[in-house]
Design a protein that fits this description.
With 165 residues, this protein is an alpha/beta fold. The protein folds into two domains: 87 residues, P-loop containing nucleotide triphosphate hydrolases (Rossmann fold, 3-Layer(aba) Sandwich), CATH 3.40.50.300; 59 residues, 2-Layer Sandwich (Alpha-Beta Plaits). Strands 5-6-4-7 form a four-stranded antiparallel sheet. Strand 2, helix 3 and strand 3 form a beta-alpha-beta unit. The longest helix has 15 residues. It is elongated, with a radius of gyration of 21 Å. The protein starts with a helix and ends with a strand.
Length: 165
């Protein structure tokens, strides 16, 4: 591959490593679907996102003639969702699974910052959803929502005033 294409691909992979949810969408009508899924899993492992929350989605189930392929794919990949976007089969189920997965990755926290911690407050605005700010006598009380991993990193340096899931 050309060097600029490799660099671009690595940049895209970095974005994947920071995603809240990884959707592995596999064309189940393709006879090589299992090899494609193995390749995706291998690449994700190589870039260190094996622990990331991922959802396997088998698409184009309306094109499957042999029910055994469908049954075996779901047996081998528990938790996978089989859909046909064209025929709108299980699309609502997929939407619900995505919402559940993203919600489970997010939580809220409250921090009490000193007034001289404006850089941290700016950081909150950049990487989290700031839900509420109150300027109190004892400092700035900030309620934020974000990815658990991001909040855990922040909490290591700045323990929260209180927390809730």
């Amino acid at each position: 591959l050309p060097h600029d294409l490799i660099a671009s691909f690595k940049s895209t992979l970095q974005e994947v490593s920071e995603a809240d949810l990884i959707l592995k969408i596999v064309d189940l009508s393709n006879p090589s679907y299992e090899k494609h899924l193995e390749t995706v899993n291998s690449v994700l492992h190589e870039i260190g996102v094996t622990e990331r929350h991922a959802l396997t989605v088998f698409n184009k189930i309306d094109l499957i003639q042999d029910q055994e392929i469908f049954t075996e794919a779901l047996r081998q990949h528990p938790g996978a969702i089989a859909v046909s976007v064209l025929r709108e089969i299980n699309v609502a189920k997929l939407e619900a699974a995505i919402l559940d997965a993203v919600r489970s990755e997010h939580t809220t926290r409250e921090f009490l910052l000193a007034y001289d911690q404006q850089k941290l407050l700016a950081h909150f605005h950049n990487v989290l959803d700031v839900l509420d700010i109150q300027y109190l006598e004892e400092g700035i009380q900030v309620k934020v929502k974000g990815r658990r991993a991001v909040l855990e990193d922040i909490e290591k340096q700045f323990p929260p005033k209180s927390s809730q899931s």
